[in-house]
């Protein structure tokens, strides 16, 4: 049975930029589970009523509804133990859980000035109004100010610094999982897909271990992420 | 054969507070390798001449001399593959390498105001003069200013924030290695031993997953770290 995933999109249905949805989609690709992405917009909260909350990703797997990308990853490993593991043992689970909170608390910071205004630019009018009001209130400044050229230059410098542990980890092997990708790879990769899909500029302009790894992740699972539309494609 | 490790100490030989030496010592305990700690002071660089550099830890294992805690961990796993692995596979190696650079770039920041002046207070006069001059030059301010009560309060708040990924990882099991400790545990633990040994106040004042884990690490390997002298013991 095909799993359905509510997947955040722009006014163009095919533009899918949610970092959390990317984590969940790469997880389903990894496990070889067929799924269908249902285009969903920020203001369509009533469509998620059955999930008991208002954010994506939400997956519908037969009569099971699961929300929150971390919970979805746990659900997939528990429900489909015969498929390739996202987290094969407790070390993998602890390491991925570290990366999940590290990405949310540390990696998002320098990505936000690269992504926020670019997200706003791809939204349909109703979502765009909601997004601008809610984000400007949260940030305490206008989207233009938050994503100024100067802020973006500073963010790129901060991003290189924040990614130093990832750069170092990739000395051990081609993936954060070592010789093969695991859920930790998809957490960091999915987060980087946020600016990658919406920004007019590529996230990585220069070669590095991280940039090469990002390229490898784009190509995984039949180029699932490589073939996804971006504003540059 | 007993491995020797040059181990940073205060004017009291038994006070051992180097975060990098703690990483290496916990690694040797984990592998069940007997070792002898040679008290060493900052200004005794000539004693490390054979290592080709001026910092501890340096271990002497027969005719092999290895410096840098990360290189020591790799050396121990390579040289003693029949002893318990510090990093059993490439996922463990990648995850530990991430933590190594994360600890050095991120965790050190909020620990420094808790540790730096306290280190100065336990050094012998010659080391104390070197330490104060070199650190004040690096920090661009006096040790008193860098470690003021206000700076320490701010550092404790920042430490809670920085440790959020560790707190989350420990949902998966009692150790960062999951069900059992691995080198990643010793990296983070060793780093926290820096303020723990020299500070008049404990690092953790309230119960948390991290505080409970720190307690477990103190007790590991026959209480090797628990039994090490601190300024409070």
Q: Layout of SSEs?
A:
Two copies of one chain form a homodimer.
Chain A: E1 3-8, H1 19-30, E2 35-40, E3 58-61, E4 64-67, H2 69-79, H3 90-122, H4 125-139, H5 143-146, H6 149-162, H7 164-169, H8 183-198, H9 209-223
Parallel strand pairs in A: 1-2
Antiparallel strand pairs in A: 1-3, 3-4
Helix pairs in contact in A: 1-2, 1-8, 3-4, 3-6, 3-8
Task: List the strand order in the largest sheet of chain A.
Answer: 2-1-3-4
Calculate the terminal CA-CA distance of chain A, rounded to whole Å: 31 Å
The topology string of helices and strands of chain A comes to EHEEEHHHHHHHH
Q: Biggest interface and its residues per chain?
A: A-B, 34 and 34 residues
Helix share of residues of chain A? 40-55%
Question: Any overview of this molecule?
Answer:
Two copies of one chain form a homodimer. The first copy, chain A, is of the alpha+beta class and 233 residues long. The first copy, chain A, contains nine helices and four strands; from the N terminus they run βαβββαααααααα. In chain A, helix 1 (19-30) links the parallel strand 1 (3-8) and strand 2. Chain A starts with a strand and ends in a 10-residue tail after the last helix. In chain A, 45% of the residues are buried. Chain A binds chain B through residues 88-95, 97-102, 105-106, 161, 164-173, 175-179, 182, 184, and chain B through 88-95, 97-102, 105-106, 161, 164-173, 175-179, 182, 184.
């Amino acid at each position: 049975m095909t799993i359905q995933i509510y997947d955040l999109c722009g006014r163009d249905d095919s533009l899918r930029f949610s970092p959390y949805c990317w984590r969940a989609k790469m997880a389903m690709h990894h496990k070889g589970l067929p799924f269908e992405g249902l285009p969903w917009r920020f203001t369509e909260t009533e469509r998620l009523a059955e999930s008991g909350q208002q954010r994506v990703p939400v997956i519908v797997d037969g009569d099971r509804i699961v929300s929150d990308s971390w919970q979805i990853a746990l659900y997939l490993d528990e429900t489909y133990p015969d498929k390739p593991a996202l987290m094969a043992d407790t070390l993998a689970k602890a390491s991925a859980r570290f990366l999940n909170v590290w990405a949310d608390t540390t990696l998002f910071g320098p990505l936000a000035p690269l992504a926020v205004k670019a997200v706003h630019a791809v939204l349909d009018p109703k979502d765009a109004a909601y997004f601008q009001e809610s984000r400007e209130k949260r940030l305490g400044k206008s989207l233009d100010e938050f994503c100024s050229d100067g802020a973006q230059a500073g963010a790129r410098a901060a991003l290189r610094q924040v990614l130093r542990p990832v750069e170092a980890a990739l000395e051990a092997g081609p993936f954060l999982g070592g010789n093969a990708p695991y859920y930790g790879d998809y957490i960091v990769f999915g987060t980087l897909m946020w600016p990658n899909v919406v920004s007019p500029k590529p996230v990585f302009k220069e070669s590095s271990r991280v940039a090469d790894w990002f390229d490898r992740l784009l190509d995984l699972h039949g180029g699932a992420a490589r073939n996804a539309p971006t504003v540059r494609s």
